[in-house]
Amino acid sequence: MSTTPATDHTILVGGPYWEELSVGDVYVEFPALTLNEGHAALHQSIVGDRLRLPLDATLSQRVAHRRLAHPMLVCDVSIGQSTLPTQRVIGNLFYRRLMLRRLPAIGDTLRSTTEIVALKRNTVKEGRKPTGLAVLHIVTSDQEGRAILDYWRCAMLPISDLDASQPHADDLSQFPADLPADQLTDCLEGINLEAYRVEVPGAHFADLAVPTTWKLDGATASPARLSSRACR
Amino acid sequence: MEARWGDSVTGAPELARLSLNIAKAHTDPGSHHSGQRLVYGGHTIGIAAAQITKALPNLVTIIGWHHCNHLAPVFEGDVLRSTITLDDSEALPAGGGLVTFQCNVDAQRADGSTDAVLDWRLVGAMA
């Protein structure tokens, strides 16, 4: 599907156009990736994240009993592993139910399967290239087969041959936006929040006021001073 | 106009490649009508997540996304600025709790104009 014979000796490599996708297609051949310190460092250098657990091996060991990877690195790899059918993507419209089932560690190997679960041909507009939407169901697991992520992504893809395209009109509202409330804490199993509270100075859950709005203005907010709380 | 601190978007093809993302739009400028590479959506989200950790340095982890809507494309060199609102929390029996944020991100373009680019609602954990 993603390779098209052009001549006897030449194969064009590229992703499918929208009309080449069918509901039920499953893509399983994407490479797995073992998360290592290099991935963590490169990711951190590009987005500048400051989550303490992925940065601090000692704290991560005390709180999680393993060297946690950054959750956004995990999400990025999962999304990357789902791009086989969306190499020609014009844009991503939404993600649904994207929720970590477990917090992977450095050394864990992520693999993903991607299934086409809904298709919708966009209305053709005068002077615009025709496009369609595809909803992908992406399931990412680790080397032990443990669930890591299970979500939907909606991509807009170009249509190469409008006459060959089917007028699919699947209902895209069938993918619920809200995360399942009873599963939100699954990934915190084995995470010792009390140890985190004891080890880390500064404001924790009990210190938060709802609602609070932050606008970033050039400095890390509320730097922890050497208070009795910070000293424990 | 409010002057706020932003983060420049850099290294966009590198993040796409690092995460095994093979969408042409992130590496080939000819694949988008603008003639520019599109920044991978998770890149924008990653910088927004980093800005959340500057606002709340003791966020333990991000758990999930209630919704995440990309409102406009982001290009390398854009400067991203987030407004983050903690609008819900739920204490956990063993201490700590879940926190829900609305994070809205603007991109300042090379020509000085500004567009809303991300509407992200996420859940995290605090200790």
Tell me the domain tally of chain B: 1
**Regions with little confidence, pLDDT below 50 for 5+ residues of chain B:** none
The proportion of strand residues of chain A reads 25-35%
Counting H and I runs of at least 4 residues, what is the number of helices of chain B?
Answer: 2
Structural class of chain B, by secondary structure, is alpha+beta
Mean pLDDT of chain B: 93
CATH superfamily of chain A: Hotdog Thioesterase
CATH class of chain B: Alpha Beta
Assembly level: heterodimer
Uncertain spans of chain A: 227-232
Assign the CATH topology of chain B.
Thiol Ester Dehydrase, Chain A
Number of domains of chain A: 1
Helix fraction of chain B by DSSP (H/I, runs of at least 4): 10-25%
The shape of chain A, in one word, is: elongated
List keywords for this structure.
heterodimer; A: 232 residues; alpha+beta; Thiol Ester Dehydrase, Chain A; 6-stranded antiparallel beta sheet; two-stranded antiparallel ribbon; 6 helices; 19% helix; disordered C terminus; B: 127 residues; 5-stranded antiparallel beta sheet; 2 helices
Task: Please outline the helices and strands.
The complex is a heterodimer of chains A (232) and B (127).
Chain A: E1 3-5, E2 11-13, E3 26-27, E4 33-34, H1 37-47, H2 52-55, H3 57-64, H4 71-81, E5 91-96, E6 98-99, E7 109-121, E8 131-141, E9 147-158, H5 193-199, E10 212-215, H6 228-231
Antiparallel strand pairs in A: 1-2, 3-7, 4-7, 5-9, 7-8, 8-9
Chain B: E1 7-8, H1 12-18, H2 41-55, E2 59-70, E3 79-91, E4 97-108, E5 114-126
Antiparallel strand pairs in B: 1-3, 2-5, 3-4, 4-5
What does this structure look like?
The complex is a heterodimer of chains A (232) and B (127). Chain A is an alpha+beta fold and 232 residues long. Chain A has a single domain, classed as Thiol Ester Dehydrase, Chain A (Roll). Helices cover 19% and strands 25% of the residues of chain A. Chain A contains 6 helices and 10 strands, in the order ββββααααβββββαβα. In chain A, the strands form 2 sheets. In chain A, strands 3, 4, 5, 7, 8 and 9 form a 6-stranded antiparallel beta sheet that branches. Chain A has a two-stranded antiparallel ribbon with strand order 1-2. The longest helix of chain A has 11 residues. The radius of gyration of chain A is 22 Å and the shape is elongated. Chain B is an alpha+beta fold. Chain B has one domain: Hotdog Thioesterase (Thiol Ester Dehydrase, Chain A, Roll), CATH 3.10.129. Chain B is 17% helix and 41% strand. Chain B contains 2 helices and 5 strands, in the order βααββββ. Chain B has a 5-stranded antiparallel beta sheet with strand order 1-3-4-5-2, with helices on one face. In chain B, strand 3 and strand 4 form a beta hairpin. The radius of gyration of chain B is 16 Å and the shape is elongated. The N and C termini of chain B lie far apart (36 Å). The model of chain B has no long low-confidence stretch (mean pLDDT 93).
